[in-house]
Amino acid sequence: MPTRTLQLVLHYDGTGFSGWQRQPDRRTVQGVLEDALTRLCAGPVAALGSGRTDAGVHARGQAVGVRVPERWTSVSLRRALNAVLPHDMWVAAVHAMRDDFHARYSATSRRYSYYVGTDEGAASPFRRGTEWAFAKPIERQMLDDATAKLAGEHCFRAFAVRGTAPADDDHRSHIMHAAWRERHGGLVFEIEANRFLHHMVRFLIGTMMDIASGKRPLADIDALLAATTNDDVSAPAPAHALFLDVVRYPAELYFPSEA
Predict the structure, then answer these.
(1) CA 259/CA 254 separation, integer angstroms
(2) Spatial distance between the Cα atoms of 241 and 36, rounded to a whole number of angstroms
(3) What pLDDT digit, counting tens, does each position of 9-22 carry?
(4) Residue 258 to residue 254: CA distance in whole angstroms
(5) What is the topology classification, in CATH, of domain 109-245?
(6) Which has the closest alpha carbon to 241: 116, 137, 107, 66?
(7) Where are the beta strands (DSSP E) in 23-81?
(8) pLDDT (tens digit per residue) in 58-104
(9) CATH class of 3-106
(10) What are the catalytic residues?
């Protein structure tokens, strides 16, 4: 049967999911999406994500590659999926892609944001599911000083879960953008890189918040970037305040009419 390659841009509230990857007896993003696709296409359809998000992590730009029967257009598949997906998942867009598109390996960068609540309202039930309520005083300038050290290419072995990358992996990432900005009720950290290691953003946030709250010195960022293990990194920040915002691909992978 002729097929076409499509990219889904997926939003989901990670609260009710045990992460991205399909697991037996667990509700996962991939599992729910593949079940919906199989129902619509009357046969198994694999959904390949740009990367795995952990349990509790949200997305408003997860890219998913699928191959579906040719009768499905970008418009018709989006409409049909949004009619059958649960309330905590939504397809924001569907793009027609060239057949050599790969959701994971074709990506040139990914962008995440992390929300920290610093006012009393961060404890509200309307905010605590998507923010880290941080009650300790913080030195705002220390966050900027720590972030400035991240720009460019570094080894982030100290900011990754041990054993989750191949033994010969150099654990290097190129940080294209990293910045904290003020928002009503707190702060948001934005970071974009060519790759992210397992828990990397959360380890970075946890370490920077420890620095900004006086638990460790600014010089520890330099030491951790030079470290060969993750023994001295701070505990990772909670997963529920992290969002996958954007996954970028080369323009030539999109069909011209849908780029």
Answers:
(1) 5
(2) 27
(3) 999 999 999 999 99
(4) 6
(5) Alpha-Beta Plaits (3.30.70)
(6) 116
(7) 48-49, 58-69
(8) 999 999 999 999 999 999 999 999 999 999 999 999 999 999 999 99
(9) alpha beta
(10) 54
